[in-house]
Amino acid sequence: MNEVFRKYKDIHKGKRVFLIANGPSLANTNLDLIKDEYSIAMNRISLLYNKFEWRPSYYLFSSTNVRPDKPWAEKWKNSVLSAIECKKTTSFVASIFKPYIDPFDNYNVSWFSSMSENKPDLEGNIKDICFSQNILQRIDKTGTTMNLALQLSLHMGFDEIIFLGADLGWTKDLASEKDTNHFSKDYTADIPKPYKANNQMRNVHSLAIKKMHEINKSIKFYNASLKTVLDTYPIIDFEKYIVEDKIVNRKQDLETAKSFWDKPPQYDTLT
Prior knowledge:
Blueprint: E1 16-20, E2 38-42, E3 58-61, H1 73-84, E4 90-94, H2 98-101, E5 110-112, E6 115-116, E7 139-140, H3 145-156, E8 160-164, E9 173-174, E10 190-191, H4 194-215, E11 220-223, H5 238-244, H6 251-259
Parallel strand pairs: 1-2, 1-8, 2-3, 3-4, 4-5, 6-7, 8-11
Antiparallel strand pairs: 9-10
Helix pairs in contact: 3-4
């Protein structure tokens, strides 16, 4: 059981949340515009902390990139430590990585343990069980921390979800020191099979729509990433949304995003 999540059940019912992915467009996104909003961020997000006053409400981490067998493990660990030491942020971290991150309990972290990992097939297709509707029993990663963030959002009761930095369109990168798939060239992540990875991530979002709407049909989703090929949600103008409280659809960007793919999403789509 993931008891650490129990007190957060429906804690933000009826509110909106920004889910912060790690795509290249995030480097050009003014995160200070959401410094008073609820947000969930992940992984090496602290690489951006020197640019903004903004800090996420919640931080999620569950990546093998901190294991000692990874040559970039120390860099990843330092980013995680920078995130979990922030007093403004509630941090949830998979307990299997505790020995590498905080073995002596120096930080205030909520460790979760009941995490499943259902891998996609070679085409990036995923199973229906890859989204848990009850994270007290288990939470599923399916190769991406964004899936954890989506399940946590449902548990917390948010009914409007806005994505930033959810770009997709990854290209092959074997953990080079000039990472082009994330918001910082220093990010360092291994993407050996981009076709599979892109489809997998898109299908994670597709399944989340299906599973979340089974619980609450009124949940709204918007992709406000500045540059994106994620086409399962309406793509909207970020600044119009946050500054002027207007939903302005970027229709041409959505058409461009759709043209990136060679097949439809595996489950549901809002477009």
